[in-house]
């Protein structure tokens, strides 16, 4: 079982990444509060997407994460061969192409396996950072902290845009489809300043 400490480590990592990305944001305090209040929800949404997604995506991440912990190419290959999905050369070729490896159906199963194993072993430091184990209920998942961080920030931006859009609507300020939250905020501020200046000049 994965400990509560490991779950907290994942959340802390995602929050640190998200906070770092909005360091130069005007509303850092509001963003941080939103991140801390919604990180669990975004993690659960990512788990839901994994459950609803194609099974091979879970197998891919499992192989890449476990491969990043192996001491040699032989053990990486052994892990791949253990997976039911990769008993088929077709599926192994698909996986190789997913990883950006140049293979074709003329290559033998062992040639493809060797190329895939070599690629994973050579990039194990990348995959070790990209994926993280996470236990939810009785299931263990392999999640991508970077993806969750991006989803969290996008969720915040979307909510902030909606909030600023509502304020703009109340003030009868025209908002363009491509305007982000910051663009709308500037329009609202400019509107308020103009209103105050016009009242003073009367």
Which features does this protein show?
5% strand
Number of helical runs?
Answer: 9
Order of helices and strands: HHHHHHHEEHH
Round the Cα radius of gyration to an integer and report it.
Answer: 24 Å
Distance between termini?
A: 71 Å
Strand content: under 5%
Largest sheet: 2 strands, antiparallel
Alpha-beta classification = mainly alpha
Number of domains: 1
Low-confidence stretches: none
Q: Calculate the mean pLDDT score and round it.
A: 86
Strand order of the largest sheet: 1-2
Level of helix content?
over 70%
Overall shape: elongated
Number of strands: 2
Describe this structure in words.
The protein is 71% helix and 5% strand. It is mostly helical and 202 residues long. It has one domain (1-148). A two-stranded antiparallel ribbon has the order 1-2. Helix 4 (73-82) crosses helix 6 (109-122) and helix 5 runs parallel beside helix 6 (109-122). The N and C termini lie far apart (71 Å).
